[in-house]
Each structure stands twice: as structure tokens, then as C-alpha cells.
Q: What sequence folds into this?
């Protein structure tokens, strides 16, 4: 069974070892099955023929049926090598120009490659189909490298939609052009289709009016017409999203029945002491989330909850109160942050909140001295330490809790799966601790449903009262002087200013140079003794970083020049201006995070995006979006549409394979929800998918195509 499907593509006619290696390297295709699951990413409608007189440069593609009038070969400097006489050396030719005509007029088609082949084929008087994108060349129009086919006889409107496959320069140079790819697909389908087994149970196909898998595969490659293509696409997208959700939800079902959770029935005195002493009332969203967490902790099952909340929405408080609940039941807790600066700030804040309680809290980072470390280890083991705050230093093997009941992970996307599973193993008697993952990267709903399909998701969708909107503007270098003037005005009013430089890779010399030059320029424009400027970057020692950072936090410095180390968490309510230099180099979610650093106090705040001359169209789109909205979820949604989800910040780092061939998490949100609803219905009735009618589903899930590594244990 399935013999053809598993055959190496090498043996497909027209491939061979060389092309097989190329296909493998460039597209990851090894077997015929891989090949037929490589779908066109768009289709070209080749049913019509455009008269040459109607060709315009704004047309995407045109197809001409035209007769060759004359051919001209050009040499390196545009010199004519030959006009319709075979030259001796094609090697000396750089360009082939062919004038073609139909009843309405004439135009030029041009080749820079395949000169000899095209010259010999396009003999004057011959009629061909030319297909390509017209472009304006000076005052004339031409088509560069059109596809050339034999002219059609009789009915010219046969074979309407042609698939365009993903390709690379190397594939094309290796002879695997679009046309060759179509031929390979056709040959592979002929061999494979008889072997294809239906993947979905009959009732699923019927309920959702889907076409069969065989029909879908044939028509996704070679659509009979646009209706058939639509049916085929729908079926294949549905299948991907449905199986993905089914796989994730099944893990969730198993977990919620299986995994033992540490029982935490009480709330405890420390929770109440802290709660009653809060300087503000919790927002409705914070209260709701705390209730959700409370219910999880009481349930007897392990909590695996993702807490999403925009920058400044008040996640820290939720974390602290959750820890106090666990402590109220006799457990220890930890809060893990991605950077040392952030861990320190958490630690300082949390200690304030803990004043009215009797809970002990400690900070453990890479730079904690050995002596303190030993004291912490001792307090962890005798159980006297209630909350351990720190960086990934918490994960080290010699950090042993007496009874870890809850682990909070802040800014989850910076941790890898392995690190998280280390935490998982730190629970007492091998019972995993409850886990709360907090992220300020708003994840669009459709993506969250996929990435965290097996997690419970809470959202803080309400900001603490009194926040003023941050006015955002984008300026060019020519307005730098005006910006400095504005900064001086704000500083004169007692405010502070962040100036951030892109330092994507902190070790890159160029970037560091930019930062240092920027710092010097700022110091020149804001000289002592009137102004104090602090600088923070990743190359500094921890002491330097802390010294400068605390100078700014305490208000001793007016301006903080820094790299993105301040991106997460840092809280300076008195800062009212965020200047982002070379803003075009940042991604949307980073820009949004940075902007979240201001607007935390009662003052009106500003975000100034300074762009360089070289700002691409895409970058400009990002900057425009930043100026248009402050809504983190909308930004995330748009970001995903602009870039595609695979590229969304956070997802790549956590190494999540979202292996969808056809469906797009960004664009197929509605279908995803439908597929998820359907998957839920099926699992409600048959959580293990053991019913005979679900056999095809179980078979598909066992292929593990839709498994998200060990995400059931992510956190
Ligand atoms: P984030 O979600 O970005 O981690 P924080 O927890 O740092 O947000 O909270 C941001 C600021 O808002 C902090 O200064 C915090 O004290 C304050 N804050 C949190 N909750 C409330 C609330 N309910 N009312 C007023 N201020 C709040
Ligand atoms: Mg935070």
C-alpha cells in the first residue's frame, strides 16, 4: 500500500538524481507525496488573449497570440550583433529582442537568458502564445522573459487556470521552471491518485459539503474551472485547520482528565492582607482573571493558563495575587522574567505589595553572589521562602524547591520549550506545579487558538483607569531640530525622555556604533549641567546597567538613551516621551512594546518615530499603522496580515512549527473557528476518537503532522 506515494521523486520521469537533490534542498520535497502536497500559491487565468493594442503596463499579466516579425541580438554595450542572421557566437550576446505582431499592432519581447534557444525557436513568420507581465521601457512597452507556447488552434480558451508554484532562483536555473513543475505534478498525480485514501470520515465530508480528497488534489493543481478550484481549496483548508484543532484539543482533553494538579482549596490570609491594602481597585478584567485562576487552582487539575494583557494592563498584580493564593495553601511559588533588569523591577514592586503580608521573597539572577545564593537555596529547601523572583537562573538544577506549587512565567515568548519543561519538573513528588504564562505580545485570536489550542487563555482587555492616549507621530531626519526643541520643553516641565536605538544583535559593531554616535549627539544637544543623559545597553556590566537604569528610574537623569533592553516591563511613570530612532528597522510588536513604556503616568505622552531616508514601503506601512492605532490586538492582527503568522514575533523563537500548506491563520480566521467548533463537537462525543466512524481521524492524528512539539507540557 502507498507504494507510489512514498517513492522518491528521483524516479519520476523528468526528474533524476540532480533535480531530485535540487527539489529536496530548495523545497524539502523527497517523495511523490511531498510533491503533490506542494500546492500552487496562485493561479493565472490564461483563458483570454489580449490584442497587442490593448496591452498596458498596469496589467498584471497578458497573453498574446502573435507572429514573429524580426529578431535582433545585442552585445554587451547594446551594440547589434546580428539581425536575423545566425551569429557565430551566441556567447557574445547579452540580449535578444523579438518584435511580434498581431492584427492590432506590434510590440517587443525580450530575453536575457536562454538566448540561443529562443532565437532558434522564434523564427520570423511563426505564431506563438506569449505570456508575461508587460512593462514600460522608456516610451515603449515590452515583456521580459515571457513564457512561450505553441499557438492554439481553433478554440483558444482551453486550459483556463494555471497554477503558479513556489520557486527559487536555483530551481529555475536547474531547469525546474513553472511549466516543468506543472508537468511533474501531472505525472505524480497520475501515479498517486489511485492510492490516495480519504482522510476524513464520510459524515464529516457530508456535514460540511466537502469534495473528496482525490477531487481536491486534482483540482488544486489543475482546476477544471474556478468553481472546482474553490471547492478544492475549501476542502484542503478545512482539513488542515480541522485536524490541527482536533489534535490540539485532544491533547487538552487528555490533560484535563489526566494530569494531577496540586490541590489549593483556600485563598489564605496573605492574599486578603495584600488585597485589602492595594492602593487602587483592580480593574474588572483583573478581577475576572483572578477568579479564573482561583477556579483552576481549586480544580484538582493542573493549571496551564496563558494570560494575555497589553503592556501596562496590570499583569504583575495578577501574578502576585495568584502566588499568594498558592502560598495560602502552604506552597512555594516563583516568578520568572526574561531579563535581569526586569527581574529586579519585579522584585522591587513585589516587595512593596508584600509589605502587609508575612511572605518572604528573594531575587535570584545570574549575578547573585554565591553567599546570597546559598541562603536562598536553604530558604527554598526549608520552605520559608514564599516567592522566588528571578531570571532563567531559576531553572538551574541546584535550585530545589521544597514544594513548588505555582510557577509564573513573564514574557513567555523568550523561553524555549526545553526551559519550560525544566520548570515543570520542579514540582513536589513529581506533580507538576500550576503554570501561569504571561505575555504582553497580543496574539491575534486565531493564532492564539492554534498556538495555545491546548492551553486556557485569559485576557486582560481593560487598562487601569486614568491612562491617557499616547500621541504618535512619524518624522524624517529633517525634523530632528524641532524634535530636540520639543524634548527640551517636556524636560522643562519635569518629564523624562526615552531615546531608543535598534540594536537587533547586541554584538553587532555597526549597531553599537550607531548607538554611541546617537548618544554623543544627544549629549551635545542636551549638555551638562542643565541636562543629564544616561545610557544603557547590552554590552555594559550589570553594575553599569543598574547604575544608569536606576538614575533614570529615580529621576536623576532626564534622558535615557538605550537599546531595546528597556523593551519589556520597565516602569517609569514620569517618562512622557518615547523617541524611537531608525524606527523603520523595528517590527510592529517591538514598536508597540516600546511605546507602552510611556503613557503610564497621568501626563500626556508622546511617541516619536524617527525614520531614515531609506524606508521601504512595508516599513512605512508599519509606521503608519503605529500612528493610526494604539490597540495592541489590532496591531498584532495587522502585523500578521502584513507578514504572515510564521514570522510573527514570538512564534519563531518558541520554535512552533505551524505547518499549514494552504490555510492562513491570518486570513482564514472564520474557517478556523468553524473547524474548531466542529472538532469540539466530535471530541465531546468521543474524546479518544475510538469510535469506528472516527478511525480515519485517529489515523491522521497518529501521523503527528499537526503535533505542536510537546506543547501540552509547554509551560
Ligand atoms: P504589565 O501588564 O505591563 O506587566 P504592570 O503590572 O507593570 O503592567 O502594571 C502597570 C502599572 O499599572 C503599574 O504601575 C501598576 O502599579 C499599575 N496598576 C496595575 N493595576 C492597576 C489598577 N487596577 N489600577 C491602577 N493602576 C494599576
Ligand atoms: Mg509586566
A:
Amino acid at each position: 500500500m502507498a507504494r507510489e506515494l512514498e517513492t522518491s521523486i528521483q524516479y519520476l520521469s523528468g526528474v533524476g538524481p540532480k533535480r531530485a537533490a535540487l527539489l529536496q534542498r530548495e523545497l524539502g520535497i523527497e517523495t511523490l507525496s511531498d510533491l503533490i502536497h506542494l500546492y500552487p500559491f496562485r493561479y493565472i487565468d490564461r483563458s483570454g488573449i489580449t490584442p497587442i493594442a490593448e496591452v498596458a503596463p498596469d496589467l498584471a499579466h497578458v497573453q498574446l497570440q502573435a507572429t514573429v516579425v524580426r529578431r535582433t541580438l545585442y552585445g554587451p554595450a547594446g551594440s547589434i550583433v546580428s539581425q536575423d542572421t545566425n551569429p557565430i557566437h551566441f556567447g557574445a550576446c547579452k540580449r535578444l529582442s523579438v518584435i511580434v505582431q498581431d492584427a492590432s499592432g506590434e510590440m517587443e519581447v525580450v530575453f536575457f537568458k536562454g538566448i540561443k534557444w529562443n532565437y532558434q525557436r522564434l523564427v520570423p513568420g511563426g505564431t506563438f502564445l506569449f505570456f508575461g507581465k508587460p512593462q514600460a521601457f522608456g516610451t515603449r512597452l515590452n515583456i521580459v522573459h515571457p513564457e512561450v507556447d505553441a499557438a492554439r488552434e481553433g478554440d483558444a480558451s482551453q486550459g483556463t487556470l494555471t497554477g503558479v508554484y513556489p520557486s527559487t532562483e536555483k530551481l529555475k536555473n536547474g531547469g525546474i521552471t513553472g511549466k516543468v513543475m506543472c508537468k511533474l505534478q501531472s505525472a505524480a498525480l497520475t501515479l498517486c491518485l489511485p492510492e490516495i485514501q480519504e482522510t476524513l470520515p464520510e459524515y464529516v465530508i457530508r456535514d460540511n459539503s466537502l469534495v473528496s480528497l482525490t477531487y481536491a488534489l486534482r483540482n488544486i493543481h489543475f482546476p477544471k474551472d474556478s468553481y472546482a478550484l474553490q471547492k478544492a481549496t475549501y476542502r484542503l483548508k478545512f482539513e488542515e485547520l480541522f485536524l490541527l484543532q482536533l489534535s490540539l484539543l485532544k491533547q487538552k482533553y487528555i490533560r484535563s482528565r489526566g494530569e494531577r494538579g496540586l490541590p489549593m482549596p483556600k485563598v489564605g490570609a496573605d492574599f486578603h492582607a495584600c488585597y485589602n491594602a492595594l492602593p487602587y481597585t483592580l480593574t474588572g478584567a483583573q478581577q475576572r482573571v483572578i477568579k479564573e485562576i482561583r477556579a483552576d487552582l481549586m480544580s484538582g487539575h493542573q493549571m496551564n493558563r496563558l494570560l494575555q494583557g497589553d503592556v501596562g494592563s496590570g499583569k504583575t498584580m495578577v501574578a502576585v495575587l495568584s502566588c499568594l493564593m498558592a502560598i495560602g495553601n502552604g506552597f512555594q511559588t516563583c516568578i520568572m522574567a526574561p531579563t535581569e533588569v526586569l527581574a529586579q523591577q519585579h522584585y522591587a514592586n513585589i516587595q512593596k505589595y508584600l509589605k502587609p503580608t508575612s511572605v518572604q521573597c528573594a531575587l535570584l539572577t545570574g549575578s547573585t553572589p554565591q553567599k546570597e545564593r546559598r541562603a536562598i537555596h536553604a530558604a527554598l529547601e526549608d520552605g520559608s521562602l514564599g516567592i522566588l523572583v528571578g531570571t532563567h537562573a531559576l531553572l538551574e538544577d541546584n535550585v530545589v524547591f521544597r514544594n513548588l506549587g505555582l510557577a509564573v512565567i513573564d514574557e513567555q515568548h523568550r523561553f524555549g520549550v526545553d526551559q519550560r519543561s525544566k520548570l515543570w519538573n520542579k514540582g513536589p513528588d513529581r506533580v507538576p506545579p500550576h503554570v501561569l504564562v504571561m505575555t504582553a505580545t497580543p496574539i491575534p485570536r486565531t493564532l492564539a487558538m492554534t498556538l495555545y489550542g491546548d492551553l486556557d487563555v485569559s485576557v486582560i482587555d481593560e487598562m487601569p483607569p486614568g491612562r491617557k492616549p499616547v500621541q504618535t507621530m512619524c518624522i524624517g531626519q529633517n525634523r530632528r531640530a524641532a524634535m530636540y526643541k520639543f524634548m527640551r520643553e517636556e524636560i522643562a516641565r519635569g518629564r523624562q525622555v526615552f531615546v531608543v536605538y535598534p540594536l537587533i544583535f547586541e554584538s553587532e559593531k555597526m549597531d553599537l556604533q550607531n548607538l554611541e554616535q546617537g548618544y554623543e549627539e544627544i549629549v551635545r544637544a542636551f549638555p551638562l549641567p542643565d541636562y543629564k543623559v544616561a545610557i544603557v545597553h547590552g554590552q555594559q556590566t550589570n553594575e553599569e546597567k543598574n547604575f544608569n537604569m536606576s538614575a533614570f528610574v529615580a529621576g536623576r537623569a532626564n534622558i535615557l538613551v538605550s537599546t531595546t533592553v528597556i523593551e519589556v516591563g520597565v516602569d517609569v511613570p514620569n517618562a512622557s516621551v518615547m523617541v524611537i530612532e531608525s524606527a523603520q528597522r523595528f517590527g510592529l510588536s517591538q514598536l508597540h512594546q516600546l511605546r507602552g513604556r510611556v503613557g503610564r503616568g497621568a501626563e500626556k505622552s508622546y511617541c516619536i518615530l524617527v525614520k531614515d531616508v531609506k524606508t521601504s514601503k512595508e516599513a512605512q506601512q508599519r509606521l503608519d499603522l503605529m500612528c493610526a492605532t494604539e490597540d495592541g490586538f489590532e496591531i498584532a492582527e495587522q502585523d500578521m496580515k502584513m507578514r504572515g503568522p510564521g514570522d510573527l514575533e514570538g512564534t519563531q523563537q518558541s520554535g512552533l512549527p505551524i505547518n499549514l500548506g494552504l490555510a492562513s491563520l491570518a486570513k482564514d480566521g472564520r474557517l478556523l473557528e468553524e473547524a474548531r467548533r466542529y472538532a469540539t463537537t466530535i471530541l465531546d462525543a468521543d474524546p479518544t476518537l475510538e469510535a469506528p466512524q472516527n478511525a480515519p481521524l485517529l489515523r491522521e492524528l497518529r501521523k503527528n503532522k499537526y503535533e505542536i512539539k510537546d506543547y501540552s507540557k509547554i509551560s
